[in-house]
Amino acid sequence: MLNIKSVELIEINLPLVHFFETSFGRTYERRIILVRVEDADGAEGWGEITCGESPGYSDEWTDSAWATAEKILAPMVVGRDVDSAADVWNLMKWARGHRMAKSGIETACWDLEAKKLGVPLWRHLGGVNQTIECGVSIGIQDNVAQLLEKIRVEVEAGYKRIKIKISPSWDYDVIKAVRAEFGNILLMGDANSAYTLADIDLLKSLDEFNLMMLEQPLPHDDIIDHAKLQAQIATPICLDEPIKSPEDARKAIELKSGKIINLKNGRVGGHTQSKLVEQICRDAAMPVWCGGMLESGIGRAHNIAISTLAGYTMPGDVSASKRYWHEDIIEPAVEVSSNGTITAPEGPGIGFEVRMDRIERLNVRRTFVTDQSVSRFQSDETLVENLAWSEWVPWNSVLALVREGGADIPSGRSGVYEVRRLDQGDERLHIGKATDLRWRIRQALVRGKGPHTAGDRIRSKEDISKLEIRWAETPKPSGVEEELHAKYFRDFGFKFHN
Questions:
Q1: Is there a contact between 458 and 419 (Cβ–Cβ < 8 Å)?
Q2: CA triplet 186, 168, 21: central angle to 5 degrees?
Q3: Which of 115, 235, 297, 382 has the most CB atoms less than 10 A away?
Q4: DSSP assignment of 9-62, as one string?
Q5: In this predicted structure, what is the pLDDT of residue 326?
Q6: pLDDT tens profile 51-95
Q7: Which fold has domain 123-350?
Q8: CB-based contact 69:33 (threshold 8 Å)
Q9: Residues of 30-56 as b/e, b for ≥16 C-beta within 10 angstroms?
Q10: Which of the 8 DSSP states describes residue 298?
């Protein structure tokens, strides 16, 4: 059983050893959000929100993830009992998207749970390969000579696979130069959605280089055109950005959109979702490998752990700390052996010590969400518990009630009201607030006198003979309405409409 008492968010600014450039642009410094969760016993776990500084790779970025984690996701986790870390995802599932923000919190809970059990995270996740093969990702450089020198350094360091970023101005001739210099090394190209089907002749021409794979050549949300492209080129396509869930993986496999999947913890929402995607791919004999997002040591430690699962059969973007950082925030720093492998640590949890001294020096902002400070989803909770609800009244009877004197709908009194379908029990079609309950319900909601978007939608799309309404007075309608929304999110997931 887990009960998270607090979620702490810490933003650090961590300069890169060398700039990293993709088709999205060039990065010199990472703005990284670290997540520390703590339970009632004082045990802690660490995670990392892996999104970039701007919404280039995904629609999440540092500032959006901070707000979402602080205001929406952390309050949904704090104070809630779950059987295991695998259930934390379900606490946040009503919030659509925001998978990288979710992953930061969820992976921290996995770390905490593994530490409390006294087992390495990789074993707790079900890993079987303690030693994993490593590849490197090399960004677009200022010139080809610079790229070749960087590849030489990594090949000599023993890395099993070299990935180079490509774009329409940095593709065929660059790959040709790499092949000429290094022969048949395991080489792949990553386009980060830089091409379209209009570039099919160019993409076909890359077949001559016998690449391991061509990663995400077409738009970030596409699996249809990728299937068309894969049918016409010999190079295996590796899907990245469009695989955000187990269902995405299943559909891509059925469509034959590619032959390999780059599986990133942050992109799919954390360890629980990664495990589901990995299982689907393994059952379909679809190889996966662990992609990277320029993580600090904490995110890198989670990547090492998840890469030990049986389905991760290709070298991933899990490399040494020193490739990216002058000084990492974990001890010891991640190191790669001379034969290009990393051995997952035997210590409990992620198996690395978090360097709080280093984090404090790099910290630019922090916030705590505790069970005492969760205001968005617990404000006015007492008022909600004490609401004196009316009986459920058929929609068509509301006007009659008012004509008969309106005693059952208070006039000039503030309050909240709910609409439901007769046959759907706890599900709410609409929750609203009013400064004058009688006017709001009778005139705006039922009769359409004055602007009322929800009322217009209900009257135009619903069979009103099958609807019921109830109401309750409260001196704080806005706060109580918000708490009602949160209550139904907590208790019934998506059994709510507005």
A1: yes
A2: 70
A3: 297
A4: EEEEEEEEEEEEEETTEEEEEEEEEEEEEEETTS-EEEEEE--BSSTTSSS-BH
A5: 94
A6: 999 998 899 999 999 999 999 999 999 998 899 999 999 999 889
A7: TIM Barrel (3.20.20)
A8: yes
A9: bbbbbbbbbbeeeebbbbbbbbbeeeb
A10: H
Known active-site residue 165: yes
Q: Which two tokens stand for residue 417?
A: 């009201």
Please give the C-alpha separations between residue 483 and each of 52, 431, 436, 488, 491, in angstroms, as whole numbers.
33, 11, 19, 9, 12
Distance CA(260)–CA(359), nearest Å, equals: 36
Measure Cα distances from 200 to 43, 92, 166, 233 in Å.
53, 40, 15, 9
Q: Which of 400, 426, 397, 438 is closest to 487 using CA atoms?
A: 426
The position carrying tokens 């738009």 is: 219
CA angle, 251 then 253 then 259, to 5° = 145
**What CATH code would you report for 2-118+365-370?**
3.30.390.10
Q: Let me know if 264 is a catalytic residue.
A: yes
How far is the C-alpha of 245 from the C-alpha of 267, rounded, in Å?
8
CA 464 to CA 446: how far, in whole Å? 9
Q: Are 94 and 85 in contact (CB under 8 A)?
A: no
Q: Give the pLDDT confidence of 217-229 residue by residue, as tens digits.
A: 999 999 999 999 9
pLDDT at 379: 44
176, 331 contact by CB (below 8 A): no
Look at residues 208, 201, 216, 204 and name the one whose alpha carbon lies nearest to residue 163. Answer: 216
Each domain of the chain, given as residue ranges in start order, spans: 2-118+365-370, 123-350, 381-492
How many other C-beta atoms are found inside a 10 Å radius of the C-beta of residue 137? Answer: 22
The answer, yes or no, to whether residue 200 has pLDDT greater than 50, is yes
Which residues, including other chains, have CB under 8 Å from residue 164's CB and lie 6 or more apart?
137, 138, 147, 151, 174, 175, 178, 187, 188, 189, 190
- DSSP E strands, 265-322: 288-290
3 state DSSP class of 434: strand
Out of 115, 150, 160, 264, which one is annotated catalytic? 264
Please write the tens of the pLDDT for every residue from 143-198: 999 999 999 999 999 999 999 999 999 999 999 999 999 999 999 999 999 999 99
Both tokens of 211, joined, read 């690449």
pLDDT given for residue 495 in this prediction: 46
Select from 3.40.1440.10, 3.30.460.10, 1.10.3720.10, 3.40.50.1860 the CATH code of 381-492.
Answer: 3.40.1440.10
From the candidates 165, 244, 275, 433, give the one annotated as an active-site residue. Answer: 165
